[in-house]
Design a protein that fits this description.
Elements: H1 8-13, H2 18-25, H3 31-42, H4 45-55, H5 63-91, H6 94-120
Length: 121
């Protein structure tokens, strides 16, 4: 299932990963890595929100589990919304399908009546 959950941060800029974010929060990065990561934080609103939210966590040792749980919940929410949109597409305009069927029936009836009229002459 982990393969199904793509890292949202890497989709934004292609250069962030969960482990580096967690290491930053836990103060495990070297000074150079920390400086580089802070530059990335400055240029990414999503990364700023992620850092701000994760810094508010009291129990830092369960950070990895929390991140995975948040990713899974977000993925589930997005899938649910996607399914609702797909379902709505089909049922959103039922009158269009009814109109197409009525027009086709009308064309068939008109063809049959015209054909019968021409054959009776």
């Amino acid at each position: 299932m982990k393969n199904d959950l793509l890292d949202i941060l890497t989709r934004e800029r292609g250069e962030h990963d969960d482990q580096k974010l967690i290491d930053y929060i836990l103060d495990k990065l070297s000074e150079a890595e920390r400086s580089e990561f802070e530059e990335r934080i400055g240029s990414s609103e999503i990364l700023q929100d992620a850092v701000q939210g994760l810094q508010g966590v009291k129990d830092k040792k369960d950070l990895q589990v929390l991140v995975e749980q948040l990713k899974k919940n977000l993925h589930d929410q997005l899938q649910k919304k996607k399914l609702e949109r797909e379902r709505r597409k089909i049922t959103e305009y039922p009158w269009i399908y009814i109109a197409i069927i009525v027009i086709l029936v009308f064309c068939i009836v008109a063809f049959v009546v015209t054909r019968m009229f021409l054959l009776s002459r």
